[in-house]
Each structure stands twice: as structure tokens, then as C-alpha cells.
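quick q for whoever's on today - can somebody do inverse folding on this one?? i tried earlier but teh output was garbage lol. C-alpha cells:
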């Protein structure tokens, strides 16, 4: 929140910093007692629909209530209705995925160890760390599968990211959600899936850590806990990378005299 006592120049600098911060995503910004210059800055911001200029404090309570009640609608990121389910915060989730900078990056030992452990610990021929873009299911790490990605519509993980815990399909061929999936009907012949969400530092689900088998089966309680813990380790690794990026940016750019540095844009 920008304090009313701040000078116009300082307020304008803060506002420009907020609009330059991609990490804010679609955060609602309320500007009280604005100046013409501040309004002009908002007009060229990252998302003018998410910046609201208020003439005075009396208008603030209603604006806050509207934001909390979800009066600001986030447009669905799909040109046509998709064939797969997606979370209510899909637009924000995709912004978080973009901020992570993970999609399209080379294989890394820290993630490959987790898929190896998942496959070996759970006796599964395939283990994947998936990231869900608007059109693709991209594998940051894969064990036992040559494909680097699939269409988003193939992703069993579309259902996993709708929940907090593990999602299990014991027999994909008889599960009405997946029976017509090309990964089930085609030569891959998948029959079993278990996945657990992988999240970023802000709690947005980027994808999942999952195991897949070509035979119907299930997981016992110990195996479920193993998968959940490995997914948590993947989430921790993503959080560490975010923290490391922020620290490196702070070191490279230094802190301003007022002790506050603008947050780095995510790559």
C-alpha cells in the first residue's frame, strides 16, 4: 500500500516499480488520491484492468470488498473451450509457470534424481515431472519415456492440479475420464497413474510428480507417502531456485537508499 503522506514523486516511483514487477502477476493494485502522472503510469502498466484509481479514502472499502469477492474476473487463457478440466485460477497459474522459467530448460540432476527415485521406489516403469502450459504437457524430467512432451489434452495431470493431494487412477482403461485418452488407447498403453501436485513459492500448482504403469494397480499407504514426499522435494527445489534468483538480483543491483529494492522480473 502506498502511504498518503508520500510525495508524488515517491508514489510515482513505487507505482512504476509495481508495474515493472512481473512477479505480481494479476495482483489488484488500488491507488488512492492519485495524481495525473500516476494515472498515466497506470495506463501503460502490465495490466490496466488490475489497477484501480480511487479519488479518496471513502471509496476504498467498497473497492477492497469488490476485489475480495472476486469482482475482477480473470479471462480464461484458452481461445476455445478445452477438452480437459482446469483450475479456476488457471490464468494466474500460467503466469506463475512463466515466472518459474522452467519450461524449455535442459535436464537437471536435481530433478532427474527425483523421477528416478519415484520410479524405483514405487516399482513404476515411468516417472515424470510435468509442467502444464496452455497447450502442452512438458516434462522437466522423465524416466522411462522418450517423449519430451505431449498435448495438454493427454495429461492425466490436468486432474491432479485440481486438488491438494495425490490423484490415483488404478485402471485408466475403465476410468471414464481417461478411457479415450490417446496415451491409453495408443501404443503407449498406459493403465495406471498416480500424481501429486508440485507448487511454486506462492502456492500455484505448476504441474505434478507422477508415476505411470502399463498394468492396473494401486499404491499402499507407504507408497503414497513416498510420492507425496518426493513431490514436496520437487516443490522445495523450485522454491530454492526462486529465492536464489531474488538474492542474485539483489546482490547485482544493490538496495536503494530507502532500503527497498524493486523485485526482479522473472526469467
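ok took a stab at it. sequence:
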Amino acid at each position: 500500500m502506498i502511504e498518503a503522506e508520500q510525495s508524488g514523486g515517491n508514489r510515482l516511483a513505487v507505482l512504476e516499480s509495481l508495474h515493472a514487477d512481473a512477479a505480481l502477476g494479476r495482483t489488484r493494485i488500488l491507488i488512492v488520491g492519485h495524481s495525473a502522472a500516476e494515472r498515466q503510469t497506470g495506463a501503460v502498466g502490465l495490466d490496466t484492468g488490475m489497477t484501480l484509481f480511487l479519488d479518496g479514502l471513502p471509496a476504498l472499502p467498497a473497492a477492497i470488498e469488490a476485489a475480495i469477492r472476486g469482482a475482477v474476473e480473470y479471462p480464461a487463457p484458452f481461445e476455445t473451450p478445452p477438452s480437459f478440466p482446469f483450475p479456476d485460477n488457471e490464468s494466474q497459474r500460467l503466469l506463475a509457470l512463466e515466472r518459474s522459467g522452467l519450461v524449455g530448460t535442459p535436464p537437471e540432476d536435481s530433478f532427474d534424481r527425483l523421477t528416478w527415485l519415484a520410479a524405483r521406489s514405487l516399482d513404476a516403469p515411468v516417472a515424470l515431472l510435468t509442467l502444464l502450459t496452455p497447450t502442452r504437457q512438458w516434462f522437466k524430467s522423465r524416466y522411462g519415456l522418450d517423449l519430451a512432451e505431449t498435448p495438454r489434452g493427454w495429461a492425466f495431470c490436468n486432474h491432479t492440479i485440481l486438488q491438494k493431494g495425490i490423484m490415483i487412477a488404478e485402471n485408466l482403461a475403465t476410468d471414464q475420464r481417461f478411457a479415450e485418452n490417446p496415451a491409453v488407447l495408443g501404443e503407449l498403453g498406459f493403465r495406471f497413474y498416480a500424481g501429486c501436485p508440485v507448487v511454486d513459492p506462492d502456492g500455484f500448482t505448476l504441474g505434478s510428480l507422477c508415476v505411470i504403469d502399463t498394468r492396473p494397480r494401486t499404491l499402499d499407504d507407504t507408497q503414497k507417502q513416498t510420492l507425496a514426499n518426493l513431490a514436496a522435494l520437487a516443490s522445495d527445489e523450485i522454491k530454492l531456485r526462486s529465492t536464489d534468483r531474488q538474492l542474485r538480483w539483489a546482490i547485482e543491483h544493490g538496495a536503494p537508499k530507502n532500503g527497498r529494492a524493486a523485485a526482479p522480473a522473472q526469467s
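fwiw Residues 77 and 91 are 6 Å apart (CA to CA). also The chain has two domains: 8-73, 90-248. so keep that in mind when u check it
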